[in-house]
Specification:
Number of helices: 14
Distance between the termini: 27 Å
Structural class: alpha+beta
Radius of gyration: 24 Å
Shape: elongated
Number of strands: 19
Largest sheet: 19 strands, mixed
């Protein structure tokens, strides 16, 4: 899980470009679970930066401080991939192999990497004890981070990639075929199984129950500005039955008008926003493990299914942190579940209770040994719920950037993430340290589905 999180954000941070001679693509395994393409040509044209900046970007990814030309072809796209075995890799086209070798020879002299050694016709080195680099005639392959005990195995794996032909490489894969149809400088096509569950969950809503995540593909166009990463994506499947279900589910979502944007805090970890009918939402949640897990425990005393059946309109589900501490807001067409609360009070399991909250009408507090759930209905038929672990306090509210709020309106489904909402999390700090030299301090990610 940690590795996947680091990989996803690292991919969004590095940036390169497109080419006509594509032999170097053969080193990318054809059965890759995820493939990200970065067209530096477009990015440099829009930013006014030169070739030297591209080399500096790759150096930043490797944790190297160098302004020397690496010998890579920055007119060719850079590709990043995750193999079926979970190996994480980066592939760049070689422009001048002698220059590439000279670059790493200079690094070895400075003690930054090992001296490059030949293996099965190619050269290999390890940068800063973590990044294994393979240097071939057409491509440079970087894989990692890898522990010292994994270096030999990683070198053998890269060596095998160098021997692949058109029949084993990525060129004819569904991932590459979809990438070729996308026009943005940075684009991602991945199996849902390759991404952290928190990212994949909204994209898989509507898939048939027990669908293997490898059967769901996510195609996303990516852009970054003013500290915000935008991912505009769509889901599809090569399995006809699964694809038909995904297409049908999209029709169940309506545009978001922004009813709960004011409830979103810039300090929250992530929020999922949709606009749909309760019966449709309930059917999708039942098939989605992540969303179901958010409500685990509460359903033992409170019939959330009954509550969700009354929804008709916008819904916002927010995980304030990674505990998780969760809030739910939803527009209701039917608040009939309120008639059932007295029964819930009487049928609570041992160690749990439900009481009325004297602070408001139709407000209640569920409490057990590990959590409390505050819930109720406002006078204008809006449901609210707040799940808080015992001993925890809700984080203070922080206004969401207006540009972020505006980006949500009109979308049919949106996942909003604030990296600052995680606090001093080791994974996120690693991600931000990799991204900072390239994109600046990215603190917000917006994923929307067409």
């Amino acid at each position: 899980m940690k590795k996947k999180i680091v990989w996803v954000f690292m991919l969004l941070a590095v940036m390169f470009s497109s080419c006509s001679d594509d032999d170097y693509l053969n080193v990318i395994p054809g059965n890759s679970m995820a493939l990200l393409s970065i067209d530096m040509q477009q990015l440099l044209e829009s930013s006014g930066k030169g070739k030297q900046d591209a080399s500096q970007m790759l150096c930043s990814t490797l944790g190297i401080d160098s302004e020397e030309d690496m010998g890579i072809d920055v007119s060719a796209r850079l590709f990043l991939f995750e193999s079926q075995e979970g190996a994480l890799g980066m592939v760049a086209k070689v422009d001048d192999r002698k220059q590439v070798e000279h670059f790493f020879k200079r690094l070895a002299a400075k003690g930054i990497c090992q001296e490059a050694t030949p293996f099965r016709g190619n050269l290999f080195t390890v940068v800063k004890g973590s990044w294994v680099v393979g240097i071939g005639n057409t491509a440079v392959v970087v894989m990692g981070p890898a522990l010292p005990a994994q270096h030999s195995e990683t070198i053998s794996q890269i060596s095998a990639y160098f021997k692949q032909g058109d029949d084993m490489g990525i060129k004819s894969s569904p991932l590459m075929e979809r990438l070729e149809s996308m026009s943005t400088p940075v684009a991602l096509v991945a199996q849902a199984a390759a991404l952290p569950e928190m990212f994949a969950a909204p994209f898989t809503l509507g898939a048939p129950e027990k669908t293997d995540a490898s059967q769901i593909l996510i195609a996303a166009e990516i852009a970054c500005s003013d500290g915000t990463l935008r991912m505009k994506g769509e889901t599809f499947s090569l399995n006809k039955r699964v694809n038909e279900a995904l297409v049908a589910a999209k029709e169940l979502f309506r545009p978001i008008s922004g009813a709960y944007i004011g409830k979103l805090s810039g300090s929250d970890f992530c929020s999922l926003m949709i606009n749909t009918k309760g019966e449709d939402l309930l059917g999708m949640i039942r098939k989605n493990r992540m969303l179901t897990s958010l409500l685990t425990g509460v359903n033992t005393a409170i019939d959330m299914n009954r509550i969700l059946q009354g929804v008709d309109g916008e819904v916002a589900i927010t995980a304030h942190n990674m505990d998780p501490m969760v809030s739910i807001h939803a527009q209701l067409a039917d608040d009939g579940f309120l008639k059932d609360v007295d029964y819930w009070m009487k049928s609570c399991p041992d160690g749990a209770s439900i009481r009325r909250d004297a602070k408001a009408v139709n407000a209640f507090v569920y409490q057990d040994k590990s959590r409390r759930f505050l819930f109720g209905v406002t006078s204008d038929k809006q449901f609210y719920g707040q799940l808080v672990p015992n001993g925890s306090v809700m984080p203070s509210y922080k206004n969401t950037d207006p540009s972020v709020s505006n980006a949500l309106k009109g979308e049919k489904m949106c996942l909003l993430l604030h990296l600052d909402g995680v606090g001093n999390n080791e994974i996120v700090e690693t991600i931000k340290s990799v991204m900072l030299p390239i994109t600046g301090d990215v603190s917000t990610i917006i994923l929307t589905i067409r």
